[in-house]
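Exam revision sheet. Question 4 asks you to relate a sequence to its structure. Input first:
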Amino acid sequence: MTLLTKENERSLVERAKSGDRLAMKQIYDCYSNYLAATCSRFLPDKAEMKDVLQDSFIKIFSSLDKFTYRGEGSLKAWMRQVAVNESLKVLRRRRSKVGSAISYTWDQPDIEDESEEEPDIGNVPEEVIQNMIEALPDGYRTLINLYAFEQKSHKEIASLLGITESTSASQLHRARAILAKEINEYKRKKGDAL
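Answer key, structure tokens:
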């Protein structure tokens, strides 16, 4: 895989728009791991993630004529947004299958102290934190990903998920409290092991 420069990225986009399969393959090769990681943040099930990744690339290549190159990074950002949207579609379908339409129901784990401060994550490996996020129920995991990784506002999250802004804010608070509890428990266990 070669890294794309501003010049060859723009050229690849133009070639892919005209149906050049080699250009599409180069774009796929360059961004598939990145988009797989994006999808897996929302959908930890590997088979489901792979399906969404494939759907994302189908959507990307079939919609490439609507993409406007705006400089370095614009293709990556646009493709990431397509992958996020495709991931959210799967979560919405899942919700509607269980009879809750697009609204989210929230598991209410037992949290003794929701006002817990942000834990120091300096000694906690990134992979451990990612696993903790993946283990969250769908609604909490989705909120954390949209807010922290996609940098969406509560207004944007509310619109994407069909919930109110106050629900987004309160449930993000609960999700953070769950993560804080998990991180502190991990650190306590690691401290006990030393």
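Marking note for examiners. Confidence is low (pLDDT under 50) at residues 99-106, 110-115.
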